[in-house]
Amino acid sequence: MKEFKETRTIYGIEYTVITPKPNEDLIFPNTSIYLEGNIITGSIECGNIFVEGDQIVEGYQIVEGDQRVEGNQRVEGYQRVEGDQIVEGDQIVEGYQIVEGDQIVEGDQIVKGNQIVEGNQRVEGNQRVEGNQRVEGDQIVKGNQIVKGNQIVKGDQIVKGNQRVKGNQIVKGDQIVKGNQRVKGNQIVKGDQIVKGIKINSYCKWAIVVYSKTIKIGCVEKKTKEWEEFFKNKESIETDPESKDYKKIESAFKMAVAAQRHLKLMNKKALGK
Q: What is d(CA 224, CA 216) in angstroms, rounded to the nearest whole number?
């Protein structure tokens, strides 16, 4: 590897400027590197790293300091960042990712292995984690969140879209989910909890979503008492009142009423009632 003499100072850090060849390994332990333009590399080991365009890493990436990517980032192996990480576009990590500082992803985030973030995490788009996820600080996801394994958040958690966790979920601070929430395992929230809606697995013709004052069956949303009158009078929407499907929908509605009481109980302390 030839010597690189050009340097650039950003946010008080002096970076060595590098224009790598495609799929070239960049092994510069304890050296801060600046990568110009959109780049595709092999494995990377360095100190701090600044990427001015998109970054694709075909191998693994280890950054011992801070990392900033001004475009999109894709890492095919695993990525470990010991400092703070900022990705201004979308982030895809096919293996697992460990970030010891704070993490900010301005676009969507997809991690197909496990993810551990020791500081705070903010994802401006949607987040999908195929394995387990552990966040030691606060977590904010401004889109939808899907975690296919277990999830542990040791600070506060805010999800502004829908949340789906296929394993167990532990939130040690407060939790706010502004969309629908579905947790298939056990759920422990040690702080206050605000959840907008609950999606019911009713195994009937129409999907059912429960809110604090209304229930949505299929595409129709009504107040609970309006639905009670609806079924009492054997009213129907695209379903024969004498059919098995109608009876299953009515039975699922009764489940939804019970879930609505549960939802209000979940949110009771957080709402100060």
A: 9
Please choose, from the candidates 212, 126, 210, 136, the residue with its C-alpha nearest in 3D space to the C-alpha of residue 170.
136
Amino acid identity, position 169: Q
CA distances, 207 to each of 3, 123, 182 (Å): 62, 28, 13
Is residue 138 within 8 A of residue 119, CB to CB? The reply is: no
Q: What pLDDT, in 10s, does the model give residues 131-173?
A: 899 999 999 999 999 999 999 999 999 999 999 999 999 999 9
Q: Which of 177, 183, 146 is nearest to 159 (CA)?
A: 177
Q: Tokens 């109980």 belong to which residue?
A: 265
Query: Tokens 């390994």, residue?
Result: 25
